[in-house]
Amino acid sequence: MTRLAALDGASIDGGLYHWFITRAQHAPHWFDNLVSFYASYGLGLFALMMVWCWWQARRGRSATAMAMALAVPVAVVLAYVANDIVKSVFDEPRPCQVITSPATIQPCPGVGDWAFPSNHSAIAAAAAAAILMVDRRLGAIAVLAALVMGFSRIWVGAHYPHDVLVGFAVGAAVAVPLMLAARRYGPPLVVRLESGFLRPLLTA
């Protein structure tokens, strides 16, 4: 795909990014380690939430609930694909390659590993938006977890704030219409699948 001109992320919100990484330098080590761990592995939390949605839908024996639950991981995958397409168009160097002081609490990704938009943020936002449409209580937790994921990606120096915000927008923009379509068109498909060998996975 033909790339657009390089995106100068530092001119957009480089000052805010610098404020974050400076705070990270002066934060307690335990806090930086916790944020760094979540920035790297926190997406696993959303996977656990997806499993919970599926399990609850299976126990509830509702074709609509199951269709919605099964649509959550689909929304996440499509959001990742959509975000990666956007990322393939823009050349925005990682902020830690441009603003080199202070040092970030995670190693800076190599040249060619573009920053805009944030894949982690897009995945987290898609999962949160989708889960919110399945279960409001769990969805509220997912939304908070997504916001923390976005924060963590800035804190460790991997992204500018605008990378995270656009990633959030892409994730939500993909997930919401897909979940609405799943609610409308998915139940008949679930009912048909329940009559086959997938029945144990779809209903208790």
From TrEMBL:
The keyword Transmembrane applies. It is found in: Cell membrane. The keyword Hydrolase applies. Its main location: membrane. InterPro entries: PAP2/HPO, PAP2/HPO_sf. Keywords: Cell membrane, Hydrolase, Membrane, Transmembrane, Transmembrane helix. Residues 66-179 form the Phosphatidic acid phosphatase type 2/haloperoxidase domain. SUPFAM superfamilies: Acid phosphatase/Vanadium-dependent haloperoxidase (SSF48317). It comes from the Bacteria. It is a multi-pass membrane protein. The chain crosses the membrane at residues 35-55, 62-82, 141-158, 164-182. This is Phosphatase PAP2 family protein. It comes from Streptacidiphilus alkalitolerans. The lineage of its organism: Bacteria, Bacillati, Actinomycetota, Actinomycetes, Kitasatosporales.
